[in-house]
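Supplementary Text 2. Reproducibility record for the structural model of the 200-residue chain.

All settings were left at their defaults, and a single model was retained for analysis rather than an ensemble. We include the record here because the model underlies the residue-level annotations in Supplementary Table 4.
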Amino acid sequence: MTSRVATIRRETSESSIELTIDLDGTGSSSIDSSVPFYDHLLTAFAKHSLVDLTVKATGDTHIDVHHTVEDIGIALGLAIRQALGDKAGISRFGDALVPLDEALVQAVVDVSGRPYLVHSGEPAGYELHLIGGHFTGSMVRHVFEAISFNGGLTVHVTVLAGRDPHHIAEAEFKAFARAFRFAVARDDKVSGIPSTKGAL
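Retained model, structure tokens:
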């Protein structure tokens, strides 16, 4: 069985990132993004997608967490694309509906090769809220944009209910993780590339 592991190293004047993903892992992770709440979200992503994920990052977080958070999302998307290879034998589509107390989020993933993000339903003002005193709600969408566009994924994330900003963000990442897990899973009944075009 072909290994589906990828490592991405990304260096800019704003951040330094080394990220490794194993799509056929068990959900283990070692995350040091230098942004504590983001560590929490990425750990949840690994646990519920059953990928193994290692992230070591530093950046200009004394200015803002934006650059480091977004650049890790870019690296994660690139690693996903690389680890998937030609995408032969995968399920391709995945969906999930995940609650976290009062929050409820639906996520749908298509490993389509066509980057697209539809992200909706966060309550008014959510993007301005500081979670953990440093992570703004607006960063959740930025991360999904970075992963989708660099990973070649079509992603729909819809917040159906929620009041607590922490719960909403975490439910979004858990729903995405579950949908992603099913989309990239190997399916013995799939022969070749799961597309009538013969390529994804």
